[in-house]
Each structure stands twice: as structure tokens, then as C-alpha cells.
Amino acid sequence: DFDTIIRDRAAAGEIIAPRVVASNMAVSVPGGHMAGSLAYEARSAQEAADYVRRIAAEKPDLIKPNRSEMCELMGQPGASDEAIRAYAVRLVADGIPYVLVSLGGDGALLACRDGVWRCKAPDVPVKSTLGCGDTMVASLLLSLLEQAAPAEMLRRAVALSSANAMTFETAHIQPETYRELLPLCTADRLI
Length: 191
Known about the structure:
By secondary structure, the protein is an alpha/beta fold. Helices cover 42% and strands 14% of the residues.
């Protein structure tokens, strides 16, 4: 994909370009968000897993599967948290710099070259989970641009996603809510 080509050519010194986070394609359900334009349309769990493997093979800068998507990618429905952590470490070793796995109300896990962290989500009144994954990705991208430490990246992502869950409107987060939740998010280093 175009993003990956530019990123790789810039990294090799072949062209002058700003730092590019290669996004490539996403995966969606038929008729879902960006389906057919910026996202592959997966008509089954197996097809979704195949698309995620295809994307991962292109070595994007990050992937953010949720728990069930990670289990599908692994080919292990219902995989344990330990197995998910081990697979995230493997993906990093295979060349994906950041693997952020959202775990719903259980928080998230971040694996990168510097280690693996887990952050529990604060207990909040959930109104809608629509857009929570997108807010995690947005937060991680901003943290990457700011060169934040991995534990801080994860804390911010979980706090922002939790703030999103507290609203009915997608990506309509109240800054004060985010600021109140951030101190409640602690990232524990696992590796």
C-alpha cells in the first residue's frame, strides 16, 4: 500500500518525507465503517482473520485488534491473556513495532520493542463502546508523535477509550472526563 511504500522509502533515505505512520487498509463488516473504501469487507470471522494476517504481513507501524480479533488472528478462539500476550510479543519480533490489544472492560495490552504493559480500564458507566477502538488508536498515534514512553501511551489510550465509552456520541469526549480518568489508569510492566 502507498503509506507503507512512502514510509519504507523515507526510512531507507531514498526520499525526503516526514515520519509516516503506515495505516494501509482496515477491516470492517459488510456495510460497516469505511467498508469497501479504506477497509476490506470481511464476510466471516475467517475472512477477517485472513485480512488481518495480510495487513500484518505488510508490517504496519501498529495494529490494534480487540480480544476476539486477536484470537482469530492467532487461530485460537478463546485464547488466554497469556497466549494473547505471547502472540503480541511474536508480532513485534516479526516486525510490527506496536501491538495494542483492546480488552474491553478489562483494559488493554501494549507490546513493543521496549516490553509489554497491561492497563486495566477504570470502572465507568458505559453508554456506548462505538468508537472506543478508534479513540485508542488516535491516542496512541498522538503519543507516538509526542514520543511518550510506552506505559504512558497505554495509560492515555485506555483513559481516552474509557471516556469515549461514557458518551452516546462517538469521539465526543469531554476533556475534563479524560483528565479525571487518566490518574486512574496504571500501566503495569509485564515484560
